[in-house]
Specification:
- This protein is of the alpha+beta class.
- It folds into 3 domains: 6-206, Aldehyde Ferredoxin Oxidoreductase,  A, domain 1 (4-Layer Sandwich), CATH 3.60.9.10; 252-418, Aldehyde Ferredoxin Oxidoreductase Protein, subunit A, domain 2 (Orthogonal Bundle), CATH 1.10.569.10; 430-581, Orthogonal Bundle (Aldehyde Ferredoxin Oxidoreductase Protein, subunit A, domain 3), CATH 1.10.599.
- It has 25 helices and 17 strands.
- A hairpin with a 2-residue loop joins β16 and β17 (430-431).
- α1 packs across α2 (35-46), α11 packs parallel to α13 and α21 (472-491) crosses α23.
Length: 587
């Protein structure tokens, strides 16, 4: 590392004692770079084995990497914690301004411990940390809290505001943390951990400067990376239409989960496609800090005020592929305005949209099959009826009865209590992302450290090998290699959209500019080590490959690779486990 690089500074905050201190952890950053590498080690240090996720000792860890502020699309912040949804590793990534704010405030990581006795919010301005009474904004919508903090805490330099909605306060297990209104730490319930600590929000701002090792070489490398990013066709489509560009291609190959995956083809896909949203709703494009692509697409939803037909309000709502899948095809909603209205309610309350959509889809099918009745639901959920879904979302947060209290625990717990596990679409207790592409997608959901499509991109493997033969071992090895290298990108906190630009040789060259000396062998070995570190935590907290539940629904609905076989997936899981345990070695 460069001498005195502030990246090595870890800010520790104790909410119980209203205290903070800084430790210089060059040992962690020199070895693990930053991001998931450092966060996983800090989680291991700070999280006592077997604690309840809502125990004050469950830490919240934010970490960034050495390329933040230096190179384009090094723009993510990693959050780690023990997940209240899965009872296991909680890992969530967010774009926006948070990474630059933390880095320019002078830190590589922030560790938050303890719990407050009253609602509070934090402000972190460079080396100053303050604890503020948050009772005035507790119980408010996420949007209202954000507006209040922007007005009260103007800050300086690059500023980030993280906050939760009422869902986090009510400990909904898949509550999210919202940053800059349009980005999220969405998955695995970080918002509920905030709520358990009575932490409504964090404001972070900094105006420090960054240094590099070789100024002239840095400028040349920067120009090259910037040009490569702009010339990447895959990124151009994300600028033009955003990730919803994937709706029609996935629907065409019958890989778009629809009506709780009863089918993988949605007859109204064109009405919820990226093209449709761009033509009828697109209001603005936004970019994360230091990103030239601007893949964040905001819909302008114009709605009349109640009882005032000639007065309208316009709400800007961020939409992505995963949100349209979860709140569109998965619920049989073919009305783009209905999707936006449902998404707006979820945003206001502070829920993870993917988990919410999957929970609602399970509830709809369970109602159809008579496993639950109107006594539990207090209404009649029906595919495509977004008004009913909006009411159900509110009830998940207010929890008026035992049924909605159970829905707030996630689809896995709901199915255990009411039945329907065969169509409860969760993997490792984390609700399903939007890909029914084949065995690769599901192996990724099952074995990925955070049970996310982004762990090992199995859906990409499925599409690349469509029509080709491969063994369960081939698949497991390919996904293990991919997930291992992604640990490097996520330690540098590179946006995964730019993964083809940040290949191994490029990363080594940029790390040298940032003061790190490594070679390809040590870099790839580090990726494997970080992945294994994360799995050590998972196994410590009770994760078991043997006990992974494979929902029967994914075996019943034909995929682009035909009907999936449980034996094939179990064999691949076994190979993946052996790779992690070092019983099978890569070439």
């Amino acid at each position: 590392m460069l001498l005195n690089d502030p990246l090595a500074k870890v800010l520790y905050i104790d909410l119980s004692r209203r205290s903070f201190w800084i430790e210089y952890r060059q040992d962690l950053f020199e070895k693990y770079l930053g991001g998931v590498g450092v966060a996983s080690m800090l989680l291991k240090e700070e999280c006592p084995e077997g604690i309840d996720p809502f125990d004050p000792k469950n830490p919240i860890i934010f970490a960034v990497g050495p390329l933040v502020g230096l190179f384009p699309m090094a723009s993510k912040t990693v959050a780690m914690f023990k997940s209240p949804l899965t009872g296991n590793l909680g890992e969530s990534h967010a774009g926006g301004r948070s990474a630059a704010s933390i880095r320019l405030a002078g830190y590589g990581a922030i560790v938050i411990k303890g719990a407050s006795d009253i609602p509070i919010y934090l402000t972190i301005y460079n080396d100053k940390v303050r604890f503020h009474d948050g009772r005035a904004i507790w119980g408010t919508r996420s949007t209202v809290a954000g507006r209040a903090l922007r007005e009260k805490e103007p800050g300086s330099g690059i500023r980030c505001i993280m906050r939760i909605g009422v869902a986090g306060e009510r400990l909904v297990r898949y509550a999210c943390v919202i940053t800059e209104t349009f980005r999220h730490f969405g998955r695995l319930g970080l918002g509920a951990v905030f709520g358990s600590k009575k932490l409504k929000a964090i404001v972070i701002a900094g105006n420090n400067t960054l240094q590099v090792k070789k100024g002239k070489i840095y400028k040349e490398a920067y120009k090259e990376i910037f040009k490569r990013i702009l010339n990447l066709s895959a990124l151009k489509k994300y600028h033009d239409l955003g990730t919803p560009v994937n709706i029609l291609p996935l629907n065409k190959i019958k890989a778009l989960p629809t009506r709780n995956l009863k089918t993988a083809f949605f007859e109204e896909a064109e009405k919820i496609s990226g093209e449709h949203f761009a033509e009828n709703h697109l209001g603005r494009r936004l970019a994360c800090t230091h990103c030239p692509i601007a893949c964040i697409h905001l819909a302008a939803l114009r709605q009349p005020y109640k009882d005032e037909p000639y007065f309208y309000k316009t709400t800007f709502i961020s939409y992505d592929y995963e949100l349209i899948y979860a709140l569109g095809s998965m619920l049989g909603i073919g009305d783009s305005v209905g999707i936006l209205r449902l998404l707006d309610e979820i945003e206001i309350l502070g829920l993870d949209a993917i988990s919410t959509g999957v929970v609602l889809a399970w509830a709809t099918e369970a109602f159809e099959k008579g496993l639950i009745t109107e006594k539990e639901t207090e209404l009649r959920p029906k595919w495509g009826d977004y008004e009913s879904y909006i009411n159900m979302v509110r009830k998940i947060v207010t929890q008026p009865n035992d049924f909605y209290k159970t829905l707030a625990l996630g689809v896995d717990e709901a199915a255990k209590r009411y039945g329907g596990e065969e169509f409860a679409l969760a993997f490792g207790k984390n609700e399903m992302p939007g890909y029914h592409t084949g065995p690769g997608s599901y192996l990724g959901f099952l074995t990925g450290a955070r049970h996310s499509h982004l762990d090992s991109a199995g859906y990409s493997f499925d599409q690349k090998y469509l029509g080709k033969e491969f063994t369960s071992k081939d698949l497991a090895i390919a996904l293990f290699k991919e997930e291992s290298y992604r640990q490097i990108l996520c330690s540098l906190v590179i946006c995964l959209f730019a993964r083809s630009v940040y290949d191994c040789q490029t990363v080594l060259r940029l790390l040298d500019i940032a003061g790190f000396t490594m070679n390809e062998t040590t870099l790839r070995q580090l990726g494997e080590e970080i992945l294994k570190n994360k799995y050590q935590f998972k196994l410590q907290e009770g994760f078991s490959f043997k006990n992974l539940r494979i929902p029967k629904r994914i075996l019943e609905t034909i995929s682009p690779h035909g009907q999936l076989k449980e034996d094939f997936l179990r064999e691949a899981i076994n190979v993946y486990q052996q790779l992690l345990e070092g019983k099978i070695f890569l070439d």
